[in-house]
Amino acid sequence: MALDTLSEFIDAIDRIGELHRITQPVKVHLEITEIADRVSKMPGGGKALLFEHVILRDGSRSQYPVAINLFGSMRRMSLALGVEKLDEIGARITALMDLKVPDGLMGKLSLLPRLLEVSKFPPRVKGGTPSCQEIVWQGDEIDLDKIPVLHCWPEDGGPYVTMTAVVSKDPVRGIRNVGMYRVQQLGKKTVAMHWQRHKTGAEHMRQMAERGEKMPVCIVVGSDPASMFSASAPLPPNIDEFLFAGFLRKDPVRLAKAVTNDLEVPADAEFVIEGYIDPAEELIVEGPFGDHTGFYSEADLYPKVHVTAVTMRRNAVYSTTIVGRPPMEDFYLGHATERIFLPLLKLTTPEIVDYHMPAEGGFHNLVFVSIDKKYPGHADKVMHALWGQGLMSLAKVLVVVDKEINVRNPVEAWWVALNNMDPQRDVRFTMGPVDVLDHASRAFTYGSKMGIDATRKWPEEGFTRAWPKVIEMDAATKRAVDAKWASLGLPPVSPT
Description:
Blueprint: H1 6-15, E1 19-22, E2 26-27, H2 31-40, E3 48-51, E4 54-55, E5 66-68, H3 74-80, H4 87-97, H5 105-119, E6 124-125, E7 135-138, E8 160-161, E9 165-169, E10 176-179, E11 183-185, E12 190-193, H6 200-211, E13 215-221, H7 225-230, H8 241-249, E14 254-257, E15 264-266, E16 271-277, E17 284-286, E18 289-290, E19 296-297, E20 300-302, E21 304-312, E22 318-320, H9 329-340, H10 342-348, E23 352-356, E24 367-371, H11 378-386, E25 397-402, H12 410-420, H13 423-426, E26 427-433, E27 446-453, H14 475-484
Parallel strand pairs: 1-3, 2-4, 5-22, 6-14, 24-25, 25-27
Antiparallel strand pairs: 3-5, 7-21, 8-11, 9-10, 9-13, 11-12, 12-21, 13-16, 14-15, 16-21, 17-20, 18-19, 23-24, 26-27
Helix pairs in contact: 4-10
Organism: Gemmatimonas phototrophica
GO molecular function: 4-hydroxy-3-polyprenylbenzoate decarboxylase activity
Domain 3-octaprenyl-4-hydroxybenzoate carboxy-lyase-like Rift-related: 125-326
């Protein structure tokens, strides 16, 4: 059964024993961040937190509780998407991609369930007054100071709405985009929209500017967990995130028309901040911001959003997240993306067996890739293929290893890589786009990347020495020690 609301998600987390309620007064200014940061760095990601007594910046008590670290464990991430293991979703995508038409009537009939899987989850617009509009602020009622927006880190430029789903629309083709962009609160009725130049929302704004039109936007805060995740997913520009959320949920997302513009938002969202951007206006300073790299990103110029309405559910819960020195909640969101999109990566680079972006690398700084090596120079081919694909083009360091290496275990991956590489022979350098948050690059969004070929070397690659065997105990001895382990008085150990 799909989880339809944020409250249902929180209740489900509570039932599995991974929710901690905090009833003591806690400030939105820095204190919630400090508590959540400590909890998220506990083994396994710590518990989800629900702050029930939140103190606003003016010292008053918030009407709305604050939920944070909801996605911050492997178990909760799987719960959010309705699976036991995240690889189950990748398997569904793999099955969908294998749609070659079989011979014979029975073979063709066997294809129908997979075709139905593609077509049955488009979002649906709900009639009547949706729960996300049980309360509506317009005009002088609009006051973002009443919402518990966190001031996360001491040198941040201001309070930030972080766990967002920002809805915009291509003005020519009418294709919707939903992106997770941070939003800085500037005043009671204005915010700054941080979307980097390569993001789809930014492209929509450029198109609106060319047309000389104002751009409507809706900032959704808190909805069904699949839609919240989908806003962060690196989908192709033509794929509707709410359609993808329906696929993940195995149930369509229910939408409703916004109050002050023609965009559609999740009907059961907790909060929706409606507004518009005027591309003719001067950009405004946004930032600094304590980012997922663990460093502050610098202030820069971004568009201002004029808020035209704030709508919400009665008894709404404000969901948020924080980023900073890893590991934090965003690691688990990123891990879900990694597992779900592996089949799509294999579609263009089929020799890839697995890949992993460890928390310490902040996603874009380090990617381990295992491949089924078939010919000399195969690792080089994979490196350049990955640097030519979407957000993987921002990867600063790619480490390529052989297929039997468990890249999800960075200790094993580094052990193999550092033993298998000759620095002069096996390291490649190239130039290209880098993440906007990369403070070490030689220029803004442009710099160098490094690829390490840590596969076994072939004679054609200039290696003529014997390649050594990995040390491993024989199976019979392992079984014998397993049988007597309990009698040795030693603690249990994980199997190797």
